[in-house]
Amino acid sequence: MTDINTLVELAKNSYTLDESLSVGSYVPTAPVPTINPETGFTAQSHYSSSANTLVITYTGTNDAMDQTSNFTISGLDFSRTIPEQVPEAIEYANQQVSQAQKQYGNDVSIVFNGHSLGGYLAVAARHELDIGIAIALNAPGVGAGSTINFKDENAFYYYSNPAEWGEIQKHYFGPISIDSGQIHNVGVRASDNIFFIMEASPP
Q1: In this structure, are residues 42 and 62 in contact, taking their beta carbons and an 8 Å threshold?
Q2: Contact assessment for residue 28 and residue 45, using Cβ atoms and an 8 Å cutoff
Q3: Are 158 and 115 in contact (CB under 8 A)?
Q4: What is the spatial distance between Cα 180 and Cα 140, in angstroms, rounded to a whole number?
């Protein structure tokens, strides 16, 4: 598996929206991330020739449009059963995996990666495509407030100190206040592959 520190760096860098940055041997497959301004969906991919691995990284919450998906995940949006960014995450993954297999061969390894909302999308996309593994960094469970509720032993959850979660971001919706600890703590994990990196700061 790709080094967890590399995946954390790729997740951190995914919040840089004007360019895709290389991390170690992983170089971006496109100069800028894929962004849908209408939904807030953002993703980018990196390939390492030495590891023959494609990492698909989904960005977590970084603008107001992401709140629609967060509302569904948190169970506060009763009009939706699936966060609206999930179909986009699956479509993006399909395109990237197909392109990588054509260019690098069918034995290319696939890693779905993401922090917070991005980790949620990574697990959902991996499960749908049934290929590779998913790394979810400080991410909510897939059963959170939606009909997406499944088991997937190829999903791996990494958490830093839960006491730090509230420092990442606080969301205010009129009288409702949701801190990142609440968001990251909801839902049922897709697997029991849960690891705590207590000394690390959240990505």
Answers
A1: yes
A2: yes
A3: no
A4: 10
Q: Could you list the residue range(s) of the whole structural domain that residue 153 is in?
A: 4-196
Sign of the alpha-carbon torsion through 73, 143, 189, 134: negative
Whether the CB-CB separation of 61 and 178 falls below 8 Å is answered with: no
CA distance readout (Å), 177 to 61, 134, 172, 180: 15, 29, 5, 10
What's the CA gap between 89 and 13, in Å, rounded? Answer: 18
Kindly state whether residue 201 falls inside one of the protein's structural domains: no
**Token digits of residue 180:** 């990142």
CATH number of the domain at 59, please. 3.40.50.1820
Q: Please state the pTM of the whole predicted model.
A: 0.81
> What integer pLDDT is reported at residue 197 of this predicted model?
58
- Cα distance between residue 154 and residue 166, in whole Å: 28
- Tally of domains in the chain: 1
For 105, the token pair is: 């061969």
- Enumerate residue ranges in the chain where pLDDT < 70: 1, 64-81, 143-148, 161-190, 192, 194-203
* 144-154-152 Cα angle (round to 5): 45
